[in-house]
Amino acid sequence: MGSDDNPFENLQEQIDDAASYLPSDVNDDVLTRLKNPERVLEANLTVDMDDGSLETFRAYRSQFNGDRGPYKGGIRYHPGVTRDEVKALSGWMVYKCAVVDIPFGGGKGGIVIDPDDYSADELERITRSFAKELRPLIGEDRDVPAPDVNTGQREMNWIKNTYETLENKTEPGVITGKALENGGSKGRVEATGRSTVIAAREAFNYLGEDISDATVAVQGYGNAGWITAKLADELGATVVAVSDSSGGLYDADGFDPKAVKEFKNETGSVSGYGDAESLTNEELLTLDVDLLVPAALENAIDADLAQDVKADVISEAANGPLTPDADDVLAERDVTVIPDILANAGGVTVSYFEWVQNRQRFYWSEERVNEELEEIIVDSFDDLVDAKEELDLPSFRVAAYVVAIQRVVDAYTGSGNWP
Ligand code: NAD
After folding, report:
1. I need a surface site. Which of 118, 176, 202, 256 has the fewest CB within 10 A?
2. Is the CB of 314 under 6 A from ligand 1?
3. Is 3's pLDDT higher than 60?
4. Which of 35, 72, 96, 108 is catalytic?
5. Which atom of ligand 1 is nearest to the CA of 321?
6. Could you tell me if the CB of 245 is within 6 A of ligand 1?
7. Residue with CA nearest ligand 1 atom 35
């Protein structure tokens, strides 16, 4: 059993659980392969600081599995980055790419750093130093990094520029999440919230209901949360509760998500918006709503809180918002949970579109990006329904892992083992 706080053990436990439901047995050594990274780079970046001193930062890149295509996954800047966390996150990327059937494996990277403590010039030198260490490992056909916590377009542009300068070539597809003028894709910023809402809409249809009749609570009002609120509102749902780290708001008549976002942009938080009733995050998570969207942090709902959740459907915009024990409680209580590896896969799917456009040097309209994303998320949801019904699986999460693991196993066994 994994302890709830070691993400790598949690990942391994999820794979063992799902593998036990696969229609045919998986060879033990193949299972070991599915549960462990192919390789992990551990680097020390010694960088000049603005005051003339030197400082050394620990950095990692885990390439978990490349059986379905180049490794793919973000780079995180956070003081809590560990080797095990990077390994776990890279594994989840394997299964996220497989569940939406895009031709990537999984990777993840990170630097142990609190970026708030460093100037923009220092962060540029640290990022370029990491890019130099990554250079032999990455490339549009090898490993394609992306943004994650505390990294964004700026860092992606620096990595692309460092790589292209050292390689003496143009290769925008070496990294995704770039600014539009540096080869980014239209629709990327909205993609995670968009897939969260499409997956929720499909879940309501599956349950014989309509998302336009649903009341919605959204925890977290950053990129994923606010776009989810906006798109749910556009589908006719009523967003009755939102929150951020400052606390939550409730209005039974529903919020105008854009107005709340403008208020947050001006004041830095959602708290104090209009004359809405305030509520704690715990109250938000246990509200009697039809759809609950955790879009903030990992482990937001534990087993105790899960007993009090009243939503019918949860669509996981955040990565890992339910502890494994909470997941068991919600499955027993028949709450429909759309797992993160499908619900928030819009982000990596549009990253895939960015990579395709970079390779073709041919850029799509936002309308085309959204149409292609819609098709992928709807088809993937249908694949989970088929697997859940045919194999009588206990949850959509187990179905997602079963579908994804089977795709990785098929790719691996189909290519043969060499040398
Ligand atoms: P973000 O930093 O833009 O927003 C996070 C939000 O959560 C902020 O509004 C913050 O105030 C809020 N928050 C923090 N602690 C909170 C708490 N205790 N209670 C309530 N709210 C709290 O981040 P994001 O990009 O929106 O990512 C959110 C989640 O979605 C993360 O788990 C991330 O891994 C996942 N995700 C994001 C993307 C993407 O494309 N942005 C893709 C896949 C997964």
Report:
1. 256
2. no
3. no
4. 108
5. 32
6. yes
7. 318
Q: The tokens 């879940």 sit on which residue?
A: 203
Distance from Cα 416 to the centre of ligand 1, integer Å: 40
Write out pLDDT tens, residues 43-88: 999 999 999 999 999 999 999 999 999 999 999 999 999 999 999 9
Nearest CA to ligand 1 atom 8: 222
Residue-averaged pLDDT of the chain:
96
Residue 132 falls in the annotated catalytic set: no
The CB of 295 under 6 Å from ligand 1? The reply is yes
Residue nearest to atom 2 of ligand 1 (CA): 222
The pLDDT of residue 277 is 96
Residue owning the nearest CA to atom 25 of ligand 1:
223
Mean per-residue pLDDT, 376-382: 98
